[in-house]
Specification:
Layout (H helix, E strand, L loop, with lengths): L9 E5 L6 H12 L3 E3 H9 L3 H8 L1 H15 L8 E3 L8 H10 E7 L2 H8 L13 H19 L2 E4 L5 H18 L2
Parallel strand pairs: 1-3, 1-4, 2-3, 4-5
Helix pairs in contact: 1-8, 3-4, 4-5, 6-7
């Protein structure tokens, strides 16, 4: 596979945990009828355990390798158009960033650190936030990942204060323009 080839016509959602990738992915699936691939769910199904358990049993590096392997699978030009929802840390790898860009139109869903903290506070399946100070951890990870999301995305959407329907409408309009006007 050559990552410099023309992107496929998938819509790929990236962004920090809790920014709404899975929720917006479901809304786009409903509107377009494209299959939804929630990468975290696929990895959990294949591993037969939760991401938290994968981190605990095998470590983050094994999970990241699973993400890359799945991205390589998804880069199949014969596959139908899809909505692809990724994990928050998928942009950590340069290989993954190239694969993501080749998959199609990459949309970075962004939320403020305070909103992320609020959305993830009661969810206990976030292994990277299992710390005494999740707010600081969120801020540190966001500062590290922001340039990686910027490098990868065709579009950045701030999700604070917007509903799922508004976000999906914006993504659909921008993706039509992208696919109709690329060289």
């Amino acid at each position: 596979m050559n990552p410099t080839t023309t992107p496929q016509e998938n819509i790929v959602l990236i962004g920090f945990m809790g920014c709404g990738k899975s929720t917006v992915g479901r809304e786009l699936h409903q509107r377009l009828g494209y299959p939804l691939v929630d990468m975290d769910h696929v990895i959990e199904q294949r591993a037969g355990k939760s991401i938290t358990r994968i981190f605990a049993d095998e470590g983050e590096s094994v999970f990241r390798a699973m993400e890359t392997a799945l991205l390589k699978e998804l880069n199949d030009r014969a596959a139908p158009r899809r909505i692809i929802s990724t994990g928050g840390g998928i942009v950590e790898s340069a290989t993954n960033r190239a694969l993501l860009k080749n998959l199609g139109y990459v949309v970075w869903l962004h939320a403020s650190a305070s909103v992320i903290l609020q959305r993830t506070r009661k969810i206990h399946n976030r292994p990277l936030l299992e710390t005494e100070d999740p707010a600081t951890r969120i801020q540190t990870l966001m500062e590290h990942r922001t340039p990686l999301y910027q490098e990868t995305a065709h579009l950045k959407l701030d999700t604070d204060g917007l509903c799922c329907a508004e976000l999906a409408a914006g993504i659909l309009e921008c993706s039509r323009y992208f696919f109709n006007n690329r060289a």
